[in-house]
Every structure is written in structure tokens, then in C-alpha cells.
Amino acid sequence: MEKYIDVNGVTLCVEETGEGKPLFLIHGLTGNKETMAIFPEILGPGRKYIAVDTRGHGKSTKPESYTLADHGEDLAALIRAMGYEKADVLGYSMGSYISLCAAESHSDVIDHLILLASKPSGVTSSVERIVTAAGFDMKTIAPEKMFELIMAAALAPENLAKFGRGELKIDMTAIAGAPMTDEEKKAESLSLANFDLTPGLGQVSCRTLVLSAQYDGINPPELGREIADGIHGARYVCIEGASHLVPYERPEELARLVNGFLAE
User: Fold this and answer.
1) Which has more confidence, 41 or 144?
2) Span 78-89, mean pLDDT?
3) What is the pLDDT of residue 124?
4) What tens digit of pLDDT does each residue of 93-128 get?
């Protein structure tokens, strides 16, 4: 069921599925709530999934500018506005930065926090870093070349070969989300410019699981380890044989880790 919730001067669109304890699903760069549809599929029934279009994305309000801190405040306010004292939160890639930002100021509204393919800081978005390091410009790079660079960083070598042979099926439209205008992409990119959540890691008091992937070239596993080391009692797992697209590469292992943690 699709709902629209007003928080902090914007309207956020969410999609609810299932019944049980709420698990908020926060999407990554250029994504929207639709790109998180794989998580209910692999995690299974038994909880209420609430996939969120963050501000600037999907069907939510698209301000001309916003910050990572705005996203964090939105998430905490959204949990309260939907009537929950506490909820579980899973953030994927950029969604993990948003979730961590919320937890640093509002751990009281989060029960279990899962940070998947995360990093504590960044000068730019990880995608922009990869494109620039390869000698290209975000404004002029051909879409086909950007796709090639991202997939090389987002899949483990063996899985990249399988994908090239058509043996690994990935719905690329589900990953990319809805098309964004140049203005929307610029606002998204600026919201991640020079962010640093490291100083606030010690303020996170909710139960936290940090999940990285062995071959992740977008957010390498050592960055996830930095987060876990800074949060008291946080658990860290590096999933072997996978990269940034771990939900597609190692779905069973991811489900085992997440469901086990949420059951505690």
C-alpha cells in the first residue's frame, strides 16, 4: 500500500507490504522505494516492510537542495509520524549513510540498524569517485561507459563474468530506479559532498550490524569496518564472494545474516 507522509516540510512517499514489526528500507544513489523491492523477496514474510522514497527521489518532494542531515531527520520523523516508538532500519549504500545519520541523532527510534555496503564519509558520491578516477566527467560520460565502470565495481569478478554471459540475472531497471533530471541529480550529488559521519559514531546506541562485501569497489569493506569499530557493540561481517550488488550475488547469505540479527 502506497502512503504519503508529511515530515519536516516535505512529503515522503512510502510503500508498505506485509505484516509484523516494521522494517524501514532506505534506498541508494539514484534509487527509490522500488529499488528496495528485492529485500522483502529475499528476507521473506513475518514483518512489515516500509520502503521509502527519500526526499529528492521517486514520488517524494524534490527540493532544489537538501543535505544528508535533512535525510537523517526525515527518517527519524517518518518513524514517529507513522506511529512507531521504535522500528528496525535497513539502509543500502547511500541509504546506509542516511540511516547512520539518523541513528547518530535519534538512536531512540531505532531498534535494529543494518548498514549494508556503507562508508562513514566521502568527498563525493562513490559513483562520481569511480567515474572521475577512470578519467571521465560525470556530465559528459556516455551512459554505456558509466554502466561498464559501475558494474565492474559492483560485481565480484566471477559474478561479473556470469552477468556478461547472461548466467546472472539482474533487473537493471530495478537497480537504477526512475529517471532523474539533471537538476535532481545535482541536488543528490551535492547532498553527499564532503559528508563525514565519523565524529558521531560514538553516539549510536541502537543495535547495529554493518555488512560489507569482499569485492565491493564502490564502498570497499574496510570502510564498513571503520563504521563498526566506531560504534560500541556493533557487529561487522564481510560477505565473501560478493560485491556491491550483494542482494543479487549472495541473497541466501544476506537473508541469513539479516534475519538472524533482526530476531535477536
Assistant:
1) 41
2) 99
3) 83
4) 999 999 999 999 999 999 999 999 999 999 988 888
What are the structural domain ranges in the chain?
2-262
d(CA 56, CA 215) in angstroms, rounded, equals 30
Q: Among the CATH numbers 3.40.50.12780, 3.30.300.30, 3.40.50.1820, 3.30.428.10, which is that of 2-262?
A: 3.40.50.1820
